[in-house]
Amino acid sequence: MFRVAYRQYIGEGIMHSQRVHLRGKNRYISQRFITHQSSGVISTSYRGVARFSPWSKRFSGSLRTRILLQSAFYAACIVGLTELANSYISRDTENTTEYSKTQYGSHKDLALAIKELREGLPGNNSVSTEPTTLQTYGFSEHSYHPSSPHSVVVRPNCTADVVNIINIARKYKIPIVAYSGATSLEGHTSGFSSGSICLDMSRMDQIIQINEDDCDLVCQAGARWEDINEMLKQKGIPLFFPLDPGPGATIGGMIGTGCSGTNAVRYGTARAEWFLNITAVLPNGEVIKTRNRARKSAAGFDTTKLFIGAEGTLGIVTEATLRLTPVIPTKVAMAQFPDVAHAVSAVQEILNTPYGSHIQCVELLDDHMMEATNIAGLVEHPYPVKDTLFFKIQGDSALIKGTSEIVQTIVQKHGSTCFKFAATDDEAQDLWQNRKYALTSTLAANPGTRCWTTDVCVPVSRLPQLVLETKMDLAESGLLSTIVGHVGDGNFHALILFRDNEELGRVSSAVHRLVHRAIALDGTCTGEHGVGVGKKEYLVNELGEGTVELMRMVKRAIDPHNLLNPGKASFDMTQTLRNILTTV
Ligand SMILES: Cc1cc2nc3c(=O)[nH]c(=O)nc-3n(C[C@H](O)[C@H](O)[C@H](O)COP(=O)(O)OP(=O)(O)OC[C@H]3O[C@@H](n4cnc5c(N)ncnc54)[C@H](O)[C@@H]3O)c2cc1C
After folding, report:
1. 141, 166, 179, 180: which to mutate for ligand 1, most atoms within 8 A of CB?
2. FAD-binding PCMH-type domain: which residues (predicted)?
3. Given a cut of 50, is residue 582 above it in pLDDT?
């Protein structure tokens, strides 16, 4: 049967062949053959050559060799065509906007823009073209995606400066990339190859207004979440801002990526209503406020949300009104398990009890991560090296007691061998700090390595399967990794280590498999880190072409010249074509 199918395949494959009766047998011969035959002679030299062609009936090799040679030829054709198409696509996206044919500014335009930026922002070091600075800002130590240095770094002090910069960028058609804490992990702030203005927001870090009675605060976009909480503590204000992404992240970047962190189990993510108003400068230079300070509003579209997760592609956030929440007493507890699947499966049961809402955080550190924490030397006494859950439990002492009892009962049911509270506030602080410095500890425990951080998220009930399969896959691929996870949300990060390009290639393939596994489990390629450059290729698969096209329509309407952070998030018109080509 296979042979029959194969013969049909050959028959279809030779488009200009004809079936003829030759020496008592049916033969497929090419038009060229027939022309020769009509003159009475089938060339012997042709016959000789035909013995080496896997498409010829005279091929002297076996069927297997014939299939192999043909497959190799077709594979080479596909690779060649893909590369050719990619080179056209790259040229198109780099030199023109992705949806209009407007060219970005030339070198001369760039030089004129830099001159105007220097005139418009005269302060000390407000405009830099120092090569090391351009290189540092253009690349990220956390990302292995292609990048370029920026052409100029500018440091505005206020919204008016940002308007000025945007107007200059628009006049000369130079892309602008907003850059805040630079802790994003998917190449979000990388430079654009034909030239880009990097907008360093670090000088815009002022707290403008604290409204304690209303539980909110207005600040500039460059303020860091840790500084805001520290400032509230110093002032004796018993409120805090609960979004807690990477150390050093700022409000503008947190809005940009739609971040979350360890507190999301209790407080939700940036997409919950923690940002009441956003003040943003649009690509046309207009300054807008998305809302007033009222706690809720039903006035039209939720334009605040438009900027959350937009990765600096729709506007530059210059100020924001943050909703705050009361500081509640918390206790930190730790439970250890025989394996990661047992650890993760306990989580959903705990969160579904009536005490679930008193759990502020549930974090997983797998056995490799616990070992790395010990080796990195950040702990006074080494932890037992086991898959571990860290809990933050909130409330008054009666609630903490009740919640702790429930947690203890459930983790024991799921095989936990050890459950203990941090004895002192200092110990609790240390435990949590160790979780926050997981990346640093992983690298410190494995000198000479670099690390690729993944970010999939699935419905919590699917998490044990995903974590287990991922650990097996990484082990089979011979890759070292630690795993940490905001497992209360179904989100985990494999911190995969590599030393050289060969290992980096294996890491990249493992990450690809992990993302597809997560999407197949009704999950997402990114729970909190955002799309940047690294996750673009998965969006159509995860969301569907219609949803991605809706995003593109919004982008086209707001930024018709594609000046804001081009090539990031989901706005490559060409990405779909690239997906098709790479799946062929
Ligand atoms: C050790 C470590 C731990 C981390 N843990 C978490 C975690 O638990 N949860 C989590 O969500 N993330 C985490 N992250 C990722 C990172 O901290 C977040 O993505 C964070 O929100 C990025 O903020 P940033 O200020 O560093 O932004 P940047 O990296 O500077 O920028 C991020 C994006 O926002 C855009 N942007 C920046 N400023 C503005 C602005 N003013 N207006 C418009 N767009 C802007 C940028 O162009 C870019 O696209 C972690 C990172 C590290 C290194």
Report:
1. 180
2. 145-327
3. no
